[in-house]
């Protein structure tokens, strides 16, 4: 359901139209992870999205690691640790959930139960729009019990993540995704240099463990990993 007025509807329409035609997308990203307003870490790299249901995040700084969803499994590979963790993609409750729309038919309603103009989260540029996305089924995937500050715009279920999308109203580009956890944790992804249908082979979205790398089944790691539950 889309609410919040004509401006929000226009921003959603431009966002969906911007990415709908491309089968593969590529962008550089900057990821910031904070706890109770304190910056814990910043990471950067390149993200790739391919329909249907595939994405790859190549982290380059401050260290190299890979998060990949091949359509069936989610993989997290840390070369320095010589280990890879895998979990069925449907069981992976990840901070990147809102970005699943980039690997589907680009209908925000498939990811968001409702979309409206954000009331307290402001965009980083005046020509951008800030949208609030109530994740579908968010109440069943809260990463932890709520014991800290509430998000600036409460979702329907106050124990769920609050998700905000910053959109360039001119180009329709997705500029930033901000996810706030009710326990005081926040993660944001800044995107730039979007490319439509870059020359990327389908094998790029398949993970083949290097020789000598241990495969661990189960939950993706917490803490210093870019993957959160």
Could you give the topology of this structure?
Blueprint: H1 6-20, E1 24-35, E2 38-50, E3 54-61, E4 65-69, E5 73-78, E6 83-88, E7 112-117, E8 128-135, E9 162-168, E10 174-180, E11 185-196, E12 214-217
Parallel strand pairs: 6-12
Antiparallel strand pairs: 1-2, 1-11, 2-3, 3-4, 4-5, 5-6, 7-8, 8-9, 9-10, 10-11
Overview of this protein structure:
β10 and β11 (185-196) form a beta hairpin. This protein has a 12-stranded mixed β-sheet. It is mainly β. The chain has one domain: outer membrane lipoprotein receptor (LolB), chain A (Clam). The chain has 1 helix and 12 strands; from the N terminus they run αββββββββββββ. Helix content is 7%, strand content 41%.
Q: How many individual β-strands? A: 12
Helix content: under 10%
* Overall pLDDT score: 81
Q: How would the global form be characterised? A: globular
Number of helices: 1
Q: How many discrete domains?
A: 1
Which strand order does the major sheet show?
7-8-9-10-11-1-2-3-4-5-6-12
Looking at CATH, the homologous superfamily is Lipoprotein localisation LolA/LolB/LppX
- The sequence of SSEs as H and E is HEEEEEEEEEEEE
A few lines on this structure:
The chain has 229 residues and is mainly beta. It is built from 1 helix and 12 strands; from the N terminus they run H-E-E-E-E-E-E-E-E-E-E-E-E. It has a single domain (6-217), classed as Lipoprotein localisation LolA/LolB/LppX (outer membrane lipoprotein receptor (LolB), chain A), CATH 2.50.20.
Descriptive terms for the model:
12 strands; single chain; globular; disordered C terminus; mainly beta; twelve-stranded mixed beta sheet; outer membrane lipoprotein receptor (LolB), chain A; about 230 residues
């Amino acid at each position: 359901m889309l609410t919040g007025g004509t401006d929000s509807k226009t921003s959603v329409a431009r966002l969906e139209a911007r990415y709908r035609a491309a089968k593969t997308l590529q962008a550089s990203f900057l990821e910031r992870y904070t706890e109770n307003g304190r910056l814990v870490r910043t990471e950067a790299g390149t993200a790739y999205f391919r329909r249907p249901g595939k994405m790859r995040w190549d982290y380059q700084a401050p260290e190299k690691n890979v998060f990949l969803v091949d359509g069936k499994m989610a993989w997290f590979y840390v070369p320095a640790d010589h280990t890879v963790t895998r979990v069925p993609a449907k069981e992976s409750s990840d901070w990147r959930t809102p970005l699943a729309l980039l690997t589907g038919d680009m209908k925000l309603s498939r990811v968001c139960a409702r979309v409206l103009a954000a009331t307290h989260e402001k965009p980083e540029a005046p020509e951008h729009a800030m949208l609030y996305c109530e994740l579908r089924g968010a109440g069943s995937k809260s990463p932890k019990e709520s014991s800290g500050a509430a998000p600036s715009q409460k979702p329907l279920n106050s124990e769920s993540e609050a998700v905000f999308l910053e959109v360039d109203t001119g180009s329709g580009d997705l500029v930033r995704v901000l996810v706030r956890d009710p326990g005081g944790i926040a993660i944001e992804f800044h995107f730039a240099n979007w490319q439509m249908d870059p020359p990327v082979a389908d094998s790029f979205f398949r993970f083949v463990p290097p020789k000598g790398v241990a495969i661990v089944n189960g939950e993706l790691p917490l803490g210093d990993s870019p993957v959160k539950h």
